[in-house]
Design goal:
The structure is a single chain. The protein is of the alpha+beta class.
């Protein structure tokens, strides 16, 4: 099976956000790849479940803002990069996460592309929704990792 290697840069909606996290790299990484614990630190996450390893080809189910999604993990470069995606509600999402160590913690960047008929019908609304979701996720990851690092 062939998976995407990057987000869809030509999609109608492409978002990019980043945050500095003052916690050890392994703490940040481990919080992020522990899908089954997401709802314990991300208040926007109703549920999240991964059966098996966090590895390319694995699928996980999750629900955020009341929107259920099944994602497939496409790329895992341990401690550095993750790419996953899927189709839900007619929206094709591809989501990339980058983790770069800094002198005081980790710089985390996320990029996501949205395509499909619902996106084309409301580009501004989908852009706003995606931006809000990604910023919240990053801030909640930051808070959880920094609490765990104390």
């Amino acid at each position: 099976m062939s998976f995407p290697r990057v987000i869809d840069v030509d999609a109608p909606v492409v978002a990019h956000h980043e945050v500095e996290i003052l916690a050890p790299h392994d703490v940040v990484w481990n919080h992020h790849v522990d899908v089954n614990a997401w709802s314990s630190w991300n208040s926007d996450m109703t549920s999240a479940r991964l059966e098996g390893p966090f590895a390319p080809g694995s699928e996980f189910d999750w629900e955020s803002y009341g929107f259920p999604v099944t994602s497939t993990i496409y790329v895992v470069e341990p401690q550095q990069r993750i790419l996953w995606g899927g189709v839900a509600g007619g929206i094709t999402g591809i989501h990339e996460w980058l983790f770069t160590p800094t002198d005081v913690g980790v710089h985390v960047e996320t990029y996501e592309s949205f395509a499909g008929a619902p996106v084309e019908a409301d580009v501004a609304g989908m852009t706003s929704m995606l931006d809000t979701s990604l910023v919240a996720w990053l801030h909640q990851l930051k808070a959880a990792a920094e609490r765990a690092a104390v």
